[in-house]
Structure formats: structure tokens, C-alpha cells
Design goal:
4-stranded antiparallel β-sheet; 29% strand; 3 helices; 6-stranded antiparallel β-sheet; globular; 185 residues
């Protein structure tokens, strides 16, 4: 499993906040035509193509609640390049101004939109219906909050851990990091 940094925060008279972003089971999605064939290859087959993808398990937990629907096909099929770029953009946007809002709305396969909203020194994470998918169902999720400083630190730790895992897995990992994460740097 990718390095998980768990941040615990307790302000005066407030409850404990825990935030973690973890990944595991990284793989290269394969396009297979035969039923029963695996559609997942090891990172060692990653190539230098700028369209190469890395997927895997992604768990984002706030206050013990796991953010649902990080991928239409389940949490073990999350696109790491997309999520790392979106989380980084959210952290950058939320640090820049107060109040601030960042919405990750890819609209693929009925995915909900993920809303990151800053008010003061707090980030609230919620979900809403995608603007691209009128029939999409938003899974049950009670908006969760955490300190801005913890959100930013956890996103940075996630990025560093993913970077290290991909680079160490294959020689093409350096290229993937340079291409896929360039927007997130």
C-alpha cells in the first residue's frame, strides 16, 4: 500500500479530525477482448507513451468516512494521474484565496462531482450531481471537514508517495511522472 500519512488535529473545544489519502495495487489498464483475460498489467509494462495510465486502489478518508465513487468501476480502478492532478489543483486553489471552491467533475460513467470548499482555515469535502450526467446518482456521503493545512499536507504526501512508487517500479516510471504529474507540480 502507498505510504499513508494520517493527520490528526484537535483544536480547542473541537473534535479530532483525521485525513488520509492512500493507494495500493497500482497497475496498467489493458484493453482485452477475450472474456476471462485480465485487464490489468504490472507497472513494469508501462511505456513512454504520453497516454499511458496507472490505475489502482484509492482511499480518501476524512474523519473515518471513506469518500465513495472515486471511480465508476470501484475504488480499485481509480485513475491515479487524474486524481493526483485534481487533488493538487484543489489544494492550490484553496490555498490561494478565502473563501474558495474547487470542483472535480469529470462526468464519466455517472460519476458525481467532488466539491472541495474552503471557509477560513477549514476545507469541506462534499459531492453533488455532475453537470455532465443528468441521471447520475450521488452516493450517500455526509460532507466532512478538515483543516486546510492538513488537506494541503496530505495531498503533498500522496503526490510524493505516488511519485516514488511509480519511479521505483519501472524505468518508464520517470517518464510517466514527468508527463502525467507535470500539471500537478
Amino acid at each position: 500500500m502507498g505510504k499513508a500519512v494520517q493527520l490528526v488535529w484537535q483544536g480547542f473545544g473541537q473534535s479530532v479530525t483525521q485525513l488520509s489519502i492512500e493507494f495500493s495495487g497500482l497497475y496498467v489498464p489493458l484493453h482485452v477482448s477475450e472474456e476471462g483475460e485480465s485487464d490489468r498489467g504490472p507497472l513494469t509494462i508501462l511505456d513512454d507513451d504520453e497516454h499511458s495510465h496507472i490505475h489502482g486502489m484509492l482511499l480518501i478518508r476524512i474523519n473515518g468516512h471513506e469518500l465513495p465513487a472515486v471511480s465508476h468501476y470501484g475504488p480499485d480502478d481509480a485513475c491515479m494521474g487524474q486524481w493526483v492532478a485534481e487533488l493538487h489543483a484543489a489544494a492550490e486553489t484553496l490555498q490561494a484565496t478565502d473563501p474558495a471552491i474547487y470542483v472535480y467533475d469529470e462526468g464519466e460513467q455517472g460519476q458525481p462531482a467532488f466539491v472541495f470548499e474552503r471557509s477560513g482555515e477549514t476545507v469541506c469535502v462534499s459531492m453533488r450531481r455532475s453537470q455532465y450526467e443528468s441521471k447520475a446518482r450521488v452516493p450517500p456521503w455526509i460532507a466532512q471537514s478538515c483543516p486546510l493545512v492538513d488537506f494541503v499536507a496530505e495531498v503533498q504526501a500522496f503526490m510524493a508517495s505516488l511519485d516514488a512508487a511509480v519511479r521505483s517500479a519501472t524505468p518508464a516510471g520517470l517518464h510517466w511522472v514527468q508527463v502525467q504529474l507535470k500539471e500537478a507540480r
